[in-house]
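WARN  no MSA supplied for this record, continuing single-sequence
INFO  ligand: calcium ion
INFO  echoing inputs
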Amino acid sequence: MTGLDILPEERKQKLDSLFEGFSVIAEDTYVYLCDMKYDVSRWSKMLVDTYGLPSEYMKAAGDIWEEHIHPEDRETYHKGIDDIFSGRAQGHDMQYRAQKENGEYDVCTCRGIVLKDENGVPEYFGGAIRNHGEQSHIDTLTGLRNQYGFFEDLKNRINKKYPARLWVIGIERLTEINEVYGYHTGNKMLQHFGRYLMDHVGNRGGTYRLDGSKFAVITETLGSDNISSAYEDIRSHFREGIVFENVPIMLELNSSFLALEDFNTDDQTIYSCLDFAYDESRFNRHGDITEFHNDLNNDAKQRTEKLHLIRNSISHGYSGFYLLYQPIFGVKDEKVKGAEALLRWSLDDQGMVPPDEFIPLLEKDPLFPRLGEWILRMALKESEKALLLNRDFVINVNISYSQLEKADFTDMVFNIIRETGFPPENLCLEITERCRLLDMDLLKNTVVALKAGGVKIALDDFGTGYSSMGLVKNLPFDTIKVDRGFVKDIEEDEKDKMLVKSFTEMAGTFGARVCVEGVETAGIRDILKEYNVHSFQGYYYSRPVRMEKILEDLG
Ligand code: C2E
Ligand code: CA
Ligand code: CA
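INFO  complex generated
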């Protein structure tokens, strides 16, 4: 069974010395090496003991190991090994469950490569098996590694500088499926999906279930084109519908991927980028697969590095962050009525990074709400003096939809108001159209609670999204800010002019005051003065400046 009787002595020596070589590269994993000419292998002693294998040396070790693999994973495993021995594959990178001596299953990832002899004939197949055993890294429903496992593997890759592609696929409207067909069916469907994904990826990467409806793949072998076409296959399979207990369920999917090739970063930044591209796929591309900034090529690398630095700033006392304020002027008297706080970040030689280059990417980062609190607290503190000069001064603070989503958002706002002693009526929170992604009831409750406490609410970037009208109809905004994209050409463009006119009128019918952004010239101002507009904001009046400058103008 060991095969040592058929293995010539010099081949045994070669096997042993190569094996030692392999062992050096991976101290935290089990190592295996197979002499493909004789199909005799040597496996780590640790692995042999843990799984109760017959001995360190084994003839046809692949078959022996297969006995230990979970029945559901066996076919994929078998095919992977077949591909190696038949020469169809040069390497392998797969995930399966393996049964230990005590009968329990561990999830293992197994990576290996084929070494050829001088004639190009496969000679050795060797690699490492990593045991991810701990239960907490496993999703109990699908048996896949879960988000902890995903982040652990991602961190490892970053530390060791192993390039890979990260790929996320999510199922649309899972909640609805659960509600309509019941959790039991929903769970069955998720299991099926995980299974299908794992089979489809085969021996070309590890598969994960991240959270509710999102799955991920980390792969070294799949290129961009392979990922895109694999996704299309998976997508059309699930679009056709799968039948569970006689009910056909059709699934719509969304997907994104990115190339991990820059290692001056951290796992969370990488995930934020991947998740950003995922939202892009979901909300703007009807589920078409979206690569993170594939149009920017090298730029994407710099971006993740910068994001990493910005993210680090959040956990290091917010160094590099500061606020500028852009004054908002009354239409009639052209006096300062308030200002909008705008975030800036710059550190050492990095130069100033404009907020729309990092906020949309970090919005869903677990650290982001902390930054949001810092912004609010800072804006209120810095605006105190403005209140002394003008009791009606209103400070506008931008709020990301990911902040609003948090259950303790209103508490956070009121705590900071209490702590700073700032009058709530002088604070206006700007929420954007992206809030339409949130649950409408939740949003309504939050807005109503904030307003009940005296805080004002503005809808930012009005006109840029599809459901602006839906939002203004449902939520009692104090102010509607017409996006600057609509006004920049009104001096020449009659159509834009009519559009802005009707926007401002519509906003008025909902009882909100209207602020127009992007007033860059006196010409634009003159046109807007004829419409239902209450305040102006734009470069014509002032660029964003330090609070000191605003105090000078007020005083
Ligand atoms: P926004 O809320 O629409 O902010 C107005 C943006 O328009 C600012 O860019 C401002 O500098 C720019 N702007 C003002 N007047 C003019 C003008 O006359 N012409 C032109 N072309 N632009 C003008 P900024 O500061 O780069 O901010 C970009 C976006 O980043 C903001 O758009 C907002 O969505 C986000 N942001 C900025 N600060 C914060 C923050 O503290 N929290 C959150 N959540 N988002 C922020
Ligand atoms: Ca704003
Ligand atoms: Ca805006």
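The pocket of calcium ion (ligand 2) is lined by residues 340, 398, 430, 460 (CB under 6 Å).
INFO  checksum written, moving to next record
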